[in-house]
């Protein structure tokens, strides 16, 4: 199992975590590692989707898979906060 990697976002210059789960996902798709953080990717994706369709970008299962690691992390944090 691979370890999480810290990458630097090309757009905003922030360090972000490329998790082992995301690395597996990218590898399985044959993608190279991301050059932007999740925020900037989401921003770019929503901008691109806005040009192509009027849907708002929520219906794409592939985009959900990319952010799944971050979403899961938020869910865990929320659960910890609620448990007390
Ligand atoms: Zn960024």
Could you give a quick summary of the protein structure above?
By secondary structure, the chain is mainly alpha-helical.
What does this structure look like?
The structure is a single chain. The mean pLDDT is 79. This protein has one domain (5-82). The protein has helices at residues 20-29, 38-52, 61-66, 68-82; strands at residues 5-8, 15-18. The radius of gyration is 14 Å and the shape is globular. It contains 4 helices and 2 strands; from the N terminus they run ββαααα. By secondary structure, it is mainly alpha-helical. It has a two-stranded antiparallel sheet. The structure holds zinc ion.
List the domain count as a whole number.
1
Helix count?
Answer: 4
Mean pLDDT: 79
Unreliable residue runs: none
Q: Give the spatial strand order of the biggest sheet.
A: 1-2
Determine the strand fraction and express it as a percent band.
5-15%
Calculate Rg over CA atoms. 14 Å
Total number of strands = 2
How far apart are the termini? 32 Å
The coarse overall form would be globular
Q: What structural class do helix, strand and pairing data support?
A: mainly alpha
Largest sheet: 2 strands, antiparallel
What portion of residues is helical?
A: 40-55%
> Bound compounds, please?
zinc ion
The helix/strand order is: EEHHHH
The quaternary state of the protein chains shown equals single chain
Which terms would index this structure?
single chain; about 80 residues; mainly alpha; two-stranded antiparallel sheet; about 55% helix; binds zinc ion
Helix and strand arrangement:
Elements: E1 5-8, E2 15-18, H1 20-29, H2 38-52, H3 61-66, H4 68-82
Antiparallel strand pairs: 1-2
